[in-house]
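Hey, quick one: can you model this chain's 3D structure?
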Amino acid sequence: MAKKAKKQQQSGGTPATVALGAAGVTHTVHSYDHDPAHPSYGEEAAEAMGVCPDRVFKTLVADVDGALTVAVVPVAGSLDLKALASAVGGKRAAMADPTLAERTTGYVRGGISPLGQRKKLPTVLDASASSHDTICVSAGRRGLEVELSPADLARLTDAVLAPIGRT
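Sure thing. Here's the predicted structure for all 167 residues.
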């Protein structure tokens, strides 16, 4: 199966899309031209796809009590670090060093996906995701988003659902 995944990646897939295909999860991949000058990767994705920013989620990597943790929150808001720490039973959270986040997940900033990461990290999905039939998250590179059900995302990432986003 590793050969199949590698072949799919070489033909344009990312570890995230390969993971979705291997899991047999219904999803839609959205591609758009990324503008490096845009101030927000997530807002750019929402605009390019014509999707409400409440349905487009950004993937952030934080350090909770010394352990890297993934937070998936709407691009229209921000991450509540205290709520994230609480959601995973921690005391203190801070944003992770970007270089460490990239090295650990295997993705570049602005393209970090909660799916198909090099090292599986504890993941928390903002509870607001469950109010949508589908949400969009990075598919593993800038200019590529994947749309799927929040339940499938939570299942594939073993995510905890908690109110970690702020508007």
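One thing worth noting: The first strand starts at residue 28 and ends at 31.
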